[in-house]
Design brief:
The chain has twelve helices and 14 strands. With 375 residues, the protein is of the alpha/beta class. 39% of the residues are buried.
Length: 375
C-alpha cells in the first residue's frame, strides 16, 4: 500500500490542546525538551522477558504488565517504556509482539494483535477473575520456537487506560507506538490509530509525564503534528539492522526525520551510538535529546560512559541493578527514601556534575568501546 494523504482537518475532532499543527516540513530546529537529569527508564516495565535465557531476571515479572510497571516504580527511575497497539474495536492495549500465540489440544494458534477485539485480546493469559481460565499464552522466539510464556510473577494483559489508572502516578510513561515493520501503512490509517491513542492519553494522563516514541517515521511525525503537549522521539536501530526505508538506517537519517517533523529527540540502539560517537554532537547541535536502548544498557560501565558522553538517559532491563549503579557512580542522587552509598556524603550528592575528561581521553574510551562491540 502507498501512503495516501488526508487532511488533518478531516480527522474527527480532538480537544483543542492536541492540535499543534506544523505549517510545513521545513528544516528547522524543534522546540527543545530535556529529560529530568540523566534518566533511567524501565524497559517494558521491570525488564523484557527472554523465555529461553538462563538468566532468571529476564523472567521475573510479565513484561508490559501492571505488576511489572509498579515493581519498576519501587526503584529510583523516571519513566517506564511500553508498547501500545490498537485493537480492531479501537482500544489501545499494551503488548510488544505483532502476533499473539496460544495452544489448544496441542495445536498452536496465531493471531495478529490488531485483528483482535479487546475482549478477544484479554482472553489470553491469566484472568482478572480468579474463577476464569484464560487461553495458554505462548510466545515466538527470534529463532522461530513457540514457547509457553512462563514467568515467576504473572499478570493479566492490560490496556493503556488501566496503566494510567493503576500505575504509580509519579512514574513517567514512554509510550512506544507499535507498528509492524513489514507493512506500509496509509496515512489515513495511521492518523486514526494515533488519534485513538491520543484520546486515552488526554483523558487519563493528568499530570503524569508522557513521551511518545516510534520506529515508524511517518507515525512519529504524525503524532507530533497532531499534538504539541507531549514530546515525540524517533526510534532507530542506527544501522544495526537495515530496512527498505532509508530513514531507519542511521543516526544521520534519524536527525533528518526529527528536524523535518519537529520532533524532540532520538532513541537509538546503544551500539549505533558507540560506533558513531560524532553523531552525538550533531544531535545536540540540532537541539535534540538523545536516549538509548539495548543489551549494553544493562552494564553499569556502559551506562556511565554514556553519561560522560552527554547522552540524556538509558532504557534498561535490569532496573534494580542499573538504578543502583547509577546512584553509586554518583550520576544522580539517591531518592529521599534510599540510603546514601556508604562512600558518599551529602556534600558529595549536592555537588554532582558530569566528570571532566579531555577530548583525547574520551576518544580513547570510545575507540576501546568500539573494539569491544565489534568482538
Amino acid at each position: 500500500m502507498a501512503l495516501r494523504t488526508v487532511l488533518v482537518a478531516d480527522v474527527p475532532s480532538l480537544p483543542d490542546s492536541v492540535y499543534g499543527l506544523s505549517e510545513g516540513l521545513e528544516m528547522s530546529k524543534p522546540t527543545s525538551f530535556k529529560m529530568p537529569g540523566f534518566s533511567v527508564i524501565g524497559h517494558r516495565g521491570n525488564g523484557m522477558n527472554v523465555l529461553q535465557s538462563s538468566d532468571r531476571r529476564t523472567r521475573g515479572f510479565k513484561e508490559n504488565s501492571i505488576l511489572s510497571f509498579n515493581s519498576a516504580a519501587k526503584f529510583p527511575i523516571d519513566f517506564i517504556e511500553f508498547d501500545v497497539q490498537v485493537t480492531k474495536d479501537d482500544c489501545p492495549v499494551i503488548f510488544h509482539d505483532d502476533f499473539i500465540y496460544s495452544q489448544e489440544n496441542g495445536v498452536v494458534n496465531e493471531s495478529r494483535v490488531t485483528d483482535l477485539s479487546l475482549s478477544e485480546f484479554l482472553l489470553y493469559g491469566p484472568q482478572k477473575e480468579a474463577e476464569k481460565t484464560g487461553k495458554t499464552l505462548m510466545r515466538k522466539s527470534k529463532e522461530g520456537q513457540v514457547l509457553k510464556w512462563d514467568v515467576d510473577s504473572d499478570d493479566p494483559l492490560c490496556t493503556l487506560q488501566e496503566a494510567f489508572e493503576r500505575v504509580e502516578q509519579s512514574l513517567g510513561f514512554n509510550i512506544e507506538l507499535k507498528f509492524d515493520d513489514q507493512i506500509v501503512y496509509e496515512r489515513e490509517f495511521l492518523v486514526h490509530v494515533l488519534r485513538t491513542v491520543l484520546q486515552v492519553v488526554f483523558d487519563y494522563a493528568k499530570d503524569r509525564p508522557v513521551i511518545f516514541s516510534s520506529f515508524q517515521p511517518d507515525a512519529a511525525q504524525l503524532v507530533r503534528e497532531l499534538q504539541s503537549t507531549y514530546p515525540v522521539y524517533f526510534l532507530t536501530d542506527a544501522g544495526n539492522q537495515m530496512y527498505k526505508d532509508e530513514r531507519r538506517n542511521s543516526l544521520e537519517e534519524a536527525i533528518k526525520v526529527c528536524l523535518e517533523g519537529k520532533l524532540q529527540g532520538i532513541v537509538s540502539e546503544v551500539k549505533g551510538v558507540f560506533r558513531n560517537p560524532s553523531a552525538i554532537a550533531k544531535i545536540k547541535e540540532s537541539n535534540l535529546s538523545l536516549l538509548t536502548y539495548g543489551k549494553l544498557n544493562n552494564v553499569g560501565e556502559a551506562v556511565y560512559m554514556q553519561y560522560v558522553m552527554g547522552i540524556d538517559g538509558v532504557i534498561v532491563d535490569f532496573v534494580e541493578e542499573i538504578s543502583e549503579s547509577v546512584t553509586l557512580m554518583m550520576i544522580r542522587p539517591p531518592s529521599p527514601s534510599s540510603p546514601l552509598p556508604s562512600s558518599a556524603s551529602k556534600d558529595d550528592v549536592a555537588a554532582i556534575a558530569r566528570p571532566e575528561f579531555s577530548q583525547k581521553e574520551i576518544d580513547f574510551l570510545l575507540k576501546l568501546l568500539s573494539q569491544l562491540i565489534q568482538h
